[in-house]
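note to self — DONT lose this again. spent like an hour looking for the file last time. sequence + predicted structure for the chain T wanted, 312 res
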Amino acid sequence: MANAGLAETTDHFTARKVRVIANPGSGRNSRDKEAIDAALDVFGAETELVRWDPKEDIAELVRRLIDDGADLIVSAGGDGTTMAIAGAMVGTGVPMGALPLGTFNYFARGLGLSEEPEEAARQILKGAPHAIRVGMVNGQVFLNNASLGIYPSILRERETVYKRWGRLRLMAHWSVAKTFFRFQRPMHLEIDADGKKTTQRTALVFVSRSAFQLERFGLEGEPAISHDAFAVLVANAESRLDLFKLSWRLVMRTVRSGRDYDVIEAKTLDIATRRRKALLAFDGEKRLEESPFNFRMSDEDLLIMIPEEGPA
């Protein structure tokens, strides 16, 4: 399933000067280093690996690489690294590839790319650039999802768990349980979706641009993605017990629209919280932001490499 509404394939594209951007944490262990080295071999002799420190301006780095003649820029990392690079690539007219090296890699998998970086590199080279519009919240680009409520708190707890036990998927699930036990009260929200206003009490609002991720968890909302809109999922959960029930149903793939959550399709979305600031999550990252939260589609396109056998 595609991550967003994809335009028609552009003319045949051949990359001659590939630049692979990885953050300092990618490739430091032996497994990732071998994966990156194998991918670089596939991309060819003209390829260079560029290390990016998240403290640096990624837009400036991307601009410098493009000015130097890069005709394909590839992210090497998880969804957070890919999101940051994509934000800098929007509107440049230069294609981008996504080399999966993270824990979940929803964006790359949604494009039909292999989770094996060497094979993904081959798919990128043989693929073609497609133009997509990406989601934005308060000016921040996101590729998969953005959310308010319990999920950003889970991410905060997950970072703590990862630092102690390592970046294992089991630890990610443990952080969910710990956050649920600490849950106190739901959010009070005013939601304006394409001009239709409602008030909600909920523990979670999940704004998706990834049909793959929705399908992965058995959630509805794929038509909204096909319509180049946001799939807005509002959890019918106001208590800790509600959250555990919802989580269990997600695991068992018995979650149901109308009972466990409501789906809203919206091209523009404004969410106001009762508190002046709230924790916002976007593609695995998070930060404290002032309300209201304004969701829009990017005005300019991102050119993304789709494999030949990728989503329609």
